[in-house]
Structures are given as structure tokens and as C-alpha cells.
Design a protein that fits this description.
alpha/beta; Rossmann fold; globular
């Protein structure tokens, strides 16, 4: 019997303006039931209408911060995924606004493990740098510079 995942059967909304990212994430999260949206309006309607266990939101191109606010109102844990908004300021803004994780698209192929980390730590306050953070910390150190968290 194959090992079970915390993600098995979870319903996840993936929002990104790039169709190839949506397709890749859908493939990587094949153990889940996934919906996808390529624009803000569609995603906002889906969040309002449907029940999700989690959302994965692009920061740029789909107004990810406003979608994060909508997801927070419905108590849906959200993970921010970005390439173009990969800055310390956007990391801080995501975490301060209630994201459960902030993931560079370069780490997208680890998304299943990161989402499992987030689900395992769902009782932790939003904005907590938990197990998921240990998986991307070295990437952030290389991108933002040593000691970036202390600045």
C-alpha cells in the first residue's frame, strides 16, 4: 500500500496568471482535488462559492494579496508563490497578512512537501515560520543575503 499524504483528497485552489505554472502545480498535486484560476475575478468567485482546504496564490498578476485577504476571511490557509515578487518586503507583507508560507517558484517542485508542512502545522498562528521555512531558508539566504531576517 502506498504511503498516505496529508494532502490526499484535499481540495486546493491554485491561482496563477501563467498557464504552465497552473498545469505543473496540478500535476505535482495530483493526490489532491485541485481547481485553478488564471485571474483575480475567477479566483475571487471560486473562493466565495467553494470550500477549500488551502489556496496557493501567485503574488503578482492576480492580485494575490487581495485574494489572501478573501481566503483569510473564509479561514482558508494560503501559501504565496512567487517569482517576480521575490523580495524581503513581499515576504514580510505575505507573512504579516496571514499567509501560511511564502514560496519561491524556484522551489515549486517541493510544493507537495511544503503544503504538507503547512497542514501539519495548521494550529500554529498564520505568519509562523515553521517546518516549511526550514526547506527554503537557504534559498532565501542566498537571494536576500545573510542575516536578512535580522534586518
Amino acid at each position: 500500500m502506498p504511503p498516505t499524504h496529508h494532502l490526499d483528497g484535499k481540495k486546493i485552489l491554485i491561482v496563477d496568471d501563467e498557464p504552465d505554472i497552473l498545469a505543473t502545480l496540478g500535476d505535482l498535486l495530483d493526490m489532491c482535488v485541485t481547481d485553478s484560476a488564471q485571474d483575480f475575478e475567477t479566483a475571487a468567485r471560486m473562493i466565495e462559492k467553494n470550500t477549500y482546504d488551502m489556496t496557493v496564490l501567485d503574488v503578482m498578476g492576480v492580485n494575490g494579496y487581495e485574494l489572501l485577504e478573501t481566503a483569510n476571511q473564509k479561514e482558508i490557509p494560503s501559501v504565496m508563490l512567487t517569482a517576480h515578487a521575490l523580495t524581503k518586503d513581499n515576504f514580510d507583507k505575505s507573512m504579516e497578512n496571514g499567509a501560511r508560507a511564502y514560496v519561491p517558484k524556484d522551489k515549486m517542485f517541493e510544493i507537495d512537501t511544503i503544503l504538507e508542512d503547512v497542514l501539519e502545522e495548521k494550529d500554529q498562528p498564520a505568519g509562523t515560520r515553521g517546518k516549511w521555512f526550514s526547506r527554503v531558508k537557504d534559498y532565501f539566504e542566498a537571494t536576500f543575503g545573510a542575516g536578512w531576517l535580522n534586518k
